[in-house]
Automatic annotation (TrEMBL):
Family classification: Belongs to the binding-protein-dependent transport system permease family. FecCD subfamily.
Any GO BP annotation: siderophore-iron import into cell
A Gene Ontology molecular function term of the record: transmembrane transporter activity
Top-rank taxon, per record: Bacteria
Protein's cellular compartments: Cell membrane
Stretches that traverse the bilayer: 20-40, 76-93, 105-126, 138-158, 164-186, 213-236, 256-280, 292-317, 323-341
Protein name per the record: Iron complex transport system permease protein
Source lineage: Bacteria, Bacillati, Actinomycetota, Actinomycetes, Propionibacteriales
A single GO cellular-component term on record: plasma membrane
The keyword Transcription regulation belongs to this UniProt entry's keyword annotation: no
Length: 348
């Protein structure tokens, strides 16, 4: 089994692509973006010194409350969601060998959103809590699982080509989105909640949201690293992977389960945020090669960079108001998706 794990990473491209420079650069950029996130508000901006005093409780009470209770949890939440969605995108691209899929494209985001919308419609938003327990991650996980399962049931028994998986995913996503819009139209009492949720954003972040997401993120990202070498082998093709002794079906099932966990819980907390899982894995493979141990490490850092940075921009691009971060990630990702679709053979 040792041969299985090591064979694909003896790749010349990986040897000539050092990991330290891109990761170090990414960490530095992430620190800068995080600092800006603590400084920048929708209506005011604090200096670095004021932020430091606010973090230590020695600033103006209003600024201290804004930094400690609003901006800091928002920054942490954006980092966790960006990392989770990026790794989820890398996982699903690896196991399907499809460079144009991400959780939202195979219906995971839409399925999670539909589950939350249906529960809100039938029992009200208050039903998403049971005492002190937040039920949204469990509801979203169930919806994401159902959507992912439906996609792979549709393509079962035929070749899992990139085009077929993407087409099945888009079909499921369109159906789920249509049902979500129906719920919005039919449920006047929850329209505001659902519309804000469905756009996707971290502007409502709190330490409760961070505590909800953190255990799933840590466990999901840790399990992804445990599967990294197997995903690297699987990305070479099923026949090669079986020849190297890899249990292909089991690894694919485990990887898809992790995609559902990472993306489903992110959607539960922040709503559907698209394109992070498409952009970052492509950057990773271009920067550090095809070893998924490296790709996941890169994706964690740059997924955080992308979402924290987009959240900062969302606060300043329109004066005195905020654009939901899900809108900005879609705007950033759509041109690149079009580029991939037009690039030619090997994509679809």
């Amino acid at each position: 089994m040792q041969t299985t794990a090591e064979a694909p990473v003896r790749d010349g491209a990986d040897r000539v692509r050092p990991l330290g420079i891109p990761i170090g650069t990414g960490v530095l950029v992430l620190l800068v973006m995080s600092a800006l996130s603590l400084m920048v508000g929708a209506t005011s901006t604090a200096s670095p010194g004021e932020v430091v005093r606010a973090l230590t409780g020695h600033a103006d009470p209003q600024l201290t409350a804004a930094v400690q209770s609003l901006r800091l949890p928002r920054t942490v939440l954006a980092l966790l969601i960006g990392a989770g969605l990026a790794v989820a995108g890398a996982l699903i691209q690896g196991v399907t060998r499809n460079p144009i899929v991400e959780p939202s494209i195979i219906g995971v985001n839409s399925g999670a959103a539909l589950a939350v919308a249906l529960v809100t419609y039938t029992a009200g938003a208050a039903s998403l809590r049971l005492g002190g327990i937040n039920l949204m991650p469990f509801v979203a996980f169930a919806g994401a699982s159902a959507a992912a399962a439906l996609v792979f049931v549709i393509v079962a028994g035929v070749d899992m080509t990139p085009g077929r998986v993407a087409l099945a995913g888009v079909t499921v996503a369109l159906l789920a989105n249509a049902l979500v819009m129906s719920v919005v139209v039919l449920n006047d009492n929850a329209v505001q909640f659902l519309l804000r949720y469905l756009v996707g954003g971290v502007d409502g972040a709190s330490w409760t949201s961070v505590r909800t997401l953190l255990p799933y993120s840590v466990i999901g990202l840790g399990c992804a690293f445990l599967l990294a070498k197997s995903v690297t082998v699987l990305s070479l093709g099923d026949d090669v992977a079986r020849g190297l002794g890899l249990p292909v079906e089991r690894v694919r099932l485990q990887s898809l389960a992790l995609v559902v966990v990472l993306a489903g819980v992110a959607v539960a907390v922040a709503g559907p945020i698209a394109m992070v899982g498409l952009l970052v894995p492509h950057m990773a493979r271009w920067s550090v090669g095809t070893s998924y141990l490296r790709v996941f490490g890169f994706s964690i850092v740059y997924g955080g960079v992308l979402l924290v940075g987009a959240d900062v921009v969302s606060r300043v691009v329109v004066p005195t108001t905020e654009i939901p971060v899900g809108v900005l990630t879609a705007v950033l990702g759509t041109p690149y998706f079009i580029y991939l679709a037009r690039r030619g053979r090997g994509v679809v």
